[in-house]
């Protein structure tokens, strides 16, 4: 019991939680924007892989770290546009299109990687984002290591939470996105474009998802390898329900998951002799399922989620 | 008043596939005038208005709208944005409101630049409050629209149009969901606004309000304009004849003495997540040879009452008996066996299985009948013969009894359900909104069948939002409000309306 308390009070635990949560924050925000507009984006897992691969490769080819971030976002936006065209004006099944995007984007990423580097056995490394060392603030006890020694991408993720909250709650654009996900007719009757709003939301959301992937190769690790996304996209799809489609609760959900994950790593080293390691590995997922069961009972889905809309059919 | 023209529709036509929805329709609307657009379901009223508002692109014809100075300009067709800019506002029959945002946001949606970083909510609110003051149409602005009542939502819809400086207001069946008092208030507000130069077109089925509140009447039938007259010179009979193209036989209703009690609810309560499903200790008796009308504003427990009687909901308290036999284990099967016939509210989803054929749907409530099956195998020939017989007797028209039932029109689906219910000779008939969305001919047929069942000795529970229907058919009227039933004691429209609204009569 003392051990657990020691872990929970250590700054390294909380720093790790925030680090693990960062890609999830990007992913949940991205999924949140898509679903608020009424479109489920199951391409998220594949878009994570694309973001991870493109960000890494751009840096490896000499584009610079921020160049890599930009390239990853553009690649994510491209696959988002594909999903948007298939599901919005063409009105195809959002499940099928999303899963197709995931399979396609994952394979294309691996293919590109293999074609570019046919003969390497160990993945080439890049120089990733370094921890920001903010004078004075970094030296604060506890808060310093937890908050002010993270990388720039973690800060970008936190900034995005605020930005998405502001857009959703304080701007006309946010009102229109929420309305188009609830009742597209309301938007159409007021002379706004349902297709434009939905497609724009999917493209923007997908770009954010790709940043989650880019964080993995450009901040958490320094190389791209197969299977590195490892279901993080699917976790985001679950977390967005836990968050009831609200940015603040999305941050909370991502942090909670990050904390579970950081905790299981530490418990594994502490108690690995007693309990098989796999039990700890699955703990975050089991806890997420429990949290979801509780939260999803009262979930207030966007009413038009999954429902295609066609002009002139009322 | 100088007759300034506000709007001209010239030769509008629209086809959907092989169906002609509008055929060369022309209309003129004067400034400050209230024009009522009448016609049966499928006559093309809504299509015409949707073309005016830009939801549909006409195949032929044009529209001219007057600007502030009274000069007519051609309206670019097929763009709601253009219609809004020209001063045309439309209130749809099915509200086009987003329920997760508040009324203020719904009203201002689309009138602000989307990419602006800040919104000017204060001046928007001031403008809306000004409109509310002038028009008398009030609604809470800060609450998510999902929590507003139907009447409030409708006022939000009208405010939406007025906020966009509409000079021409189109209302598609505005009173379908309102109490008589709410409807009267609405029209009084509209009348007041026409004094300031607003022109109004409203679509309605209800002759009473058309005669009371319009200046002029235009009638559509089968997509064509078949008549136009000043309301002052119109009479109910002439309009009805124009709408259906012939005299409709008024449903003859003979007085009858009620017989023994068929259905008894004693202190029945039903829980449920929403108000529409809840019943709070209801007592109700329906006799043989009696039609009991249940009046009320939608969402006051009608679903709960219907679900209890059809066995879909389990009462939490109280008891339920049919034919003096206590129903101990209520369930849909038990109620069907006890002799309850159900005409459900949502005929497309709860009345039929759309993917199954018309013939199969006709026997779906009697699958244990040896005439239909033996040892679990269906007798296809018997089912087919039964369907052909019923389709003829009940005039179910469509692509044939072997076609999937979803291909039938709404009126024919209802006839299918009537055939299925009445063929079993039920002791009690639950008719929930049986004529909603049906045209006058089909509605009259439903009324005739219900009266026939009453003459045969059945009891009927008629739940309807159309007070005229209840007053025309029911022997006795109860009002449902907030999960409670109150005996109306009379057929007085004014009194029942007040009871529906929850005011002491």
From TrEMBL, chain A:
Keyword terms of this UniProt record: Cell membrane, Membrane, Transmembrane, Transmembrane helix
Cell location: Cell membrane
Record field: transmembrane: 12-32, 39-59, 65-88, 147-168, 199-218, 224-243, 279-296
InterPro entries: ABC_transp_permease (IPR001851)
GO CC aspect terms: plasma membrane
Pfam family, one: BPD_transp_2
Membrane protein topology class: Multi-pass membrane protein
Top-level taxon of origin: Bacteria
Chief localisation class: membrane
GO molecular function term, any single one: transmembrane transporter activity
Name under which the protein is recorded: Ribose ABC transporter permease
From TrEMBL, chain B:
ATP-binding as UniProt keyword: yes
Annotated keywords: ATP-binding, Nucleotide-binding, Repeat, Sugar transport, Transport
ABC transporter domain residues: 7-247, 263-504
Pfam families for the chain: ABC_tran (PF00005)
Claim: Nucleotide-binding is one of the keywords in the record: yes
InterPro entries linked: AAA+_ATPase, ABC_carbohydrate_import_ATPase, ABC_transporter-like_ATP-bd, ABC_transporter-like_CS, P-loop_NTPase
GO molecular function annotations of the record: ATP binding; ATP hydrolysis activity
Protein name, per record: Sugar ABC transporter ATP-binding protein
């Amino acid at each position: 019991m003392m051990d657990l308390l020691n872990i929970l009070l250590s700054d390294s635990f909380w720093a790790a939680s925030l680090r693990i949560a960062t890609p999830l924050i990007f992913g949940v925000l991205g999924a949140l924007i898509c679903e608020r507009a009424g479109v489920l984006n199951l391409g998220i897992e594949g878009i994570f892989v694309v973001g991870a691969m493109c960000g890494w490769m751009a840096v490896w080819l000499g584009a610079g770290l921020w160049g890599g971030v930009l390239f990853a976002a553009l690649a994510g936006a491209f696959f988002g546009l594909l999903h948007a065209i298939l599901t919005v004006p063409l009105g195809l099944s959002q499940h099928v299109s999303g899963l197709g995007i995931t399979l396609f984007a994952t394979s294309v990423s691996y293919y590109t990687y293999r074609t570019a580097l046919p003969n390497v056995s160990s993945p080439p490394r890049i120089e990733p984002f370094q921890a920001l060392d903010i004078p004075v603030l970094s030296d604060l006890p506890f808060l310093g290591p937890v908050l002010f020694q993270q990388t720039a991408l973690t800060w970008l993720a936190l900034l995005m939470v605020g930005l998405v909250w502001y857009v959703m709650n304080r701007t006309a654009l946010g009102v229109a996105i929420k309305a188009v996900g609830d009742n597209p007719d309301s938007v159409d009757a007021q002379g706004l474009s349902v297709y434009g709003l939905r497609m724009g939301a999917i493209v923007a959301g997908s770009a954010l998802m790709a940043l989650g992937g880019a964080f993995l190769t450009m901040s958490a690790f320094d190389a791209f390898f197969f299977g590195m996304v490892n279901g993080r996209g699917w976790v985001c799809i679950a977390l967005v329900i836990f968050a009831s489609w609200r940015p603040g609760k999305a941050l909370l959900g991502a942090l909670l998951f990050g904390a579970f994950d950081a905790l299981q790593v530490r418990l594994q080293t502490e108690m690995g002799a007693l309990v098989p390691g796999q039990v700890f590995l699955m703990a975050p997922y089991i806890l997420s399922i429990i949290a979801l069961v509780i939260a999803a009972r009262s979930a207030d889905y966007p009413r038009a989620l999954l429902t295609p809309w066609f002009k002139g059919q009322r | 008043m100088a007759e300034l023209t506000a709007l001209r529709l010239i030769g509008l036509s629209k086809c959907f596939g092989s169906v002609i929805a509008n055929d060369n329709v022309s209309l003129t609307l004067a400034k400050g005038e209230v024009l009522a657009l009448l016609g049966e379901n499928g006559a093309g009223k809504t299509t015409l208005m949707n073309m005016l508002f830009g939801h549909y692109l006409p195949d032929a014809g044009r529209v001219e709208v007057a600007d502030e100075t009274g000069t007519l300009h051609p309206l670019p067709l097929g763009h709601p944005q253009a219609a809004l800019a020209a001063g045309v506002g439309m209130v749809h029959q099915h509200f086009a409101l987003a329920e997760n945002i508040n009324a203020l946001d719904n009203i201002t949606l689309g009138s602000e630049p989307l990419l602006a970083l800040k919104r000017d909510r204060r001046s928007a609110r001031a403008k809306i409050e000004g409109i509310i003051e002038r028009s008398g149409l009030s609604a809470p602005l800060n609450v998510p629209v999902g929590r507003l009542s139907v009447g409030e939502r409708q006022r939000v819809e009208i405010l939406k149009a007025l906020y966009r400086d509409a000079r021409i207001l189109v209302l598609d069946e505005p009173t379908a969901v309102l109490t008589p008092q709410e409807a009267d208030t609405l029209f009084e507000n509209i009348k007041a606004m026409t004094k300031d130069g607003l022109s109004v077109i409203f679509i309605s089925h209800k002759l009473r309000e058309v005669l009371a509140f319009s200046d002029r009447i235009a009638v559509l039938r089968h997509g064509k304009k078949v008549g136009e007259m000043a309301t002052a010179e119109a009479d109910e009979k002439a309009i009805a004849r124009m709408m259906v193209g012939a005299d409709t036989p008024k449903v003859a209703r003979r007085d009858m003495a009620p017989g023994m009690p068929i259905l008894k609810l004693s202190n029945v309560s039903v829980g449920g997540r929403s108000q529409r499903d809840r019943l709070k200790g209801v007592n109700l008796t329906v006799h043989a040879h009696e039609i009991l009308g249940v009046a009320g504003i939608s969402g006051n427990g009608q679903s709960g009452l219907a679900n209890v009687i059809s066995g879909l909901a389990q009462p939490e308290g109280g008891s339920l008996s049919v034919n003096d036999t206590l129903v101990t284990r209520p369930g849909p099967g038990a109620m069907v066996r006890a002799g309850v016939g159900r005409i459900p509210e949502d005929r497309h989803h709860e009345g039929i299985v759309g993917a199954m054929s018309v013939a199969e749907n006709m026997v779906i409530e009697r699958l244990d009948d040896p005439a239909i099956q033996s040892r679990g195998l269906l007798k296809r020939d018997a089912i087919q013969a039964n369907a052909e017989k019923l389709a003829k007797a009940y005039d179910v028209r469509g692509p044939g009894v072997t076609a999937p039932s979803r291909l039938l029109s709404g009126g024919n689906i209802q006839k299918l359900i009537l055939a299925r219910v009445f063929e079993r000779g039920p002791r009690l008939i639950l008719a929930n909104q049986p004529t909603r969305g049906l045209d006058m001919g089909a509605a009259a047929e439903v009324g005739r069948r219900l009266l026939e069942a009453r003459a045969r000795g059945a009891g009927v529970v008629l739940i309807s939002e159309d007070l005229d229907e209840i007053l025309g058919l029911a022997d006795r009227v109860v009002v449902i409000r907030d999960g409670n039933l109150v005996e109306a004691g009379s057929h007085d429209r004014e009194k029942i309306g007040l009871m529906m609204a929850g005011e002491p009569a």
